[in-house]
Amino acid sequence: MHLRTAVNLGNLLLSLSEITDSTPAIAQHQLRTAFIALEISKVAGVDRSLTEDIFAASLLHDIGALTVEEKIALHQSEDVDSNPHCIRGSLLLGKTSWFSSIAPIVRFHHTPWNEWHQPITSPMVFASQVIYLADFVERLIDRNQYILYQHQSIIDQVSAMRNISVHQEIIDAFLEVSRYEEFWLDLDSSRLYSSLFYEGPYRHIEIDIQGVSEIAKLFRDIIDFKSSFTATHTAGVAACAAKMGAFFGFTPLEVTMLEIAGNLHDIGKLIIPNAILEKPGKLTENEYALIKSHTYYTYHTIHNIKGLEQIAHWAAMHHERLDGSGYPFHYNSSQLDIGARIMAVADIFTALSEDRPYRKGMPQNEIYQLLNSQVRQNYIDGKIVALLFDHYDEINTYVRENQEQARQFYERRFKTINFCHTA
């Protein structure tokens, strides 16, 4: 097994940003916003450090809009309270040392210029204003119309915002870059990810495995907090997988990788509407088909980050079965390594043992019976199940501790911030 201990930060952020906007109606919204903001920054002569902050904040500016429904509402309507997603995004970023400096930028990226009481020379104010404009421009674009049929109308609307919603200096920088057709064609190009990867400010910056782990925990919260049904599920899966990996004899690096895989295993669910995830009754055939796609998107999101290929495999195989009857790849026992088998058991155990709003978690004896039933059907690995129950108390305690930490932040800091609704 070839294990890399560092990845490109731009590659990581672009991929994680892209999956949060994978619904067709808002596809690549944050990437497109980042491109606009980056071009404005270049014309405005912004220094390297602030350019990096503007780029990262643009890629993550809507992470506080947790559901597909909320993202679409924010993108398509002005009659939406933008404050909740700004506050939630700031809270999430503030927990992460890599992004704590951009938390205030995300917090105020919907604040118009006429509401600021600080000068534009403040880096935080300037960055917030750049993203305010970049986000506004991106949302003006009609995705069903050729970009050069509409760009002049967008330019005219931006010109009218001078010193009202956006400071004149930033408006002027946008008007300078937007007069070139190349800008608009690049913005609307299918090559946008590659362009930002190879030409963006993070193209030469690498992040070690511990940094990846910290960012994975940020996205763990984004995944879990989108629904009270699963508010601590990912935290539990990651903790369970890491503990079982350690008991199995994985190296410390491999255990960290398993934990990262656990924290990202459901990232594909970010594309699933909450109306389906929280549906009280039985799913329709079409709804279940959409649910079955989430591990596909988990795999390709992580696999697209060079150096995380092994983590992608471990994260995305938790609904595969040893007999090949799982989904979406229908891998069998010859294609599922120990890490993938651990992840499958960790996911099932956590789902069965945790409390949900509609039921209490199962006791140990019932979990044992159910897991061993799946072993007999050749769905999951009996050796991994035996490992779990050989160390049940220690694993279960560790899982509960990690879930409780996540739950306290969710209940005390996060849940109280109302989700926005259209007026």
Keywords:
single chain, 423 residues, mainly alpha, Hypothetical protein af1432, 2 domains, two-stranded antiparallel ribbon, 2 strands, disordered C terminus
**What is the assigned CATH homologous superfamily of the largest domain?**
Hypothetical protein af1432
Q: Count helical runs.
A: 22
What gross morphology would you assign?
elongated
Number of domains: 2
Structural class: mainly alpha
Strand order of the largest sheet: 1-2
Strand content: under 5%
Set down the secondary structure blueprint.
Layout lengths: L5 E3 H11 L9 H16 L3 H13 L7 H9 L6 H12 L8 H5 L15 H18 L10 H9 L8 H11 L2 H7 L4 H8 L6 E3 H17 L7 H16 L3 H13 L9 H4 L7 H7 L2 H10 L5 H8 L21 H16 L10 H13 L5 H9 L1 H23 L9
Antiparallel strand pairs: 1-2
Describe the structure.
- The chain is an all-alpha fold.
- The chain has two domains: 7-204, Orthogonal Bundle (Hypothetical protein af1432), CATH 1.10.3210.10; 208-414, Hypothetical protein af1432.
- Helix content is 60%, strand content 1%.
- It contains 22 helices and two strands.
- The protein has helices spanning 9-19, 29-44, 48-60, 68-76, 83-94, 103-107, 123-140, 151-159, 168-178, 181-187, 192-199, 209-225, 233-248, 252-264, 274-277, 285-291, 294-303, 309-316, 338-353, 364-376, 382-390, 392-414; strands at 6-8, 206-208.
- Helix 2 (29-44) runs antiparallel to helix 3 (48-60), helix 2 packs across helix 9 and helix 13 (233-248) packs antiparallel against helix 14.
- The relative contact order is 0.12.
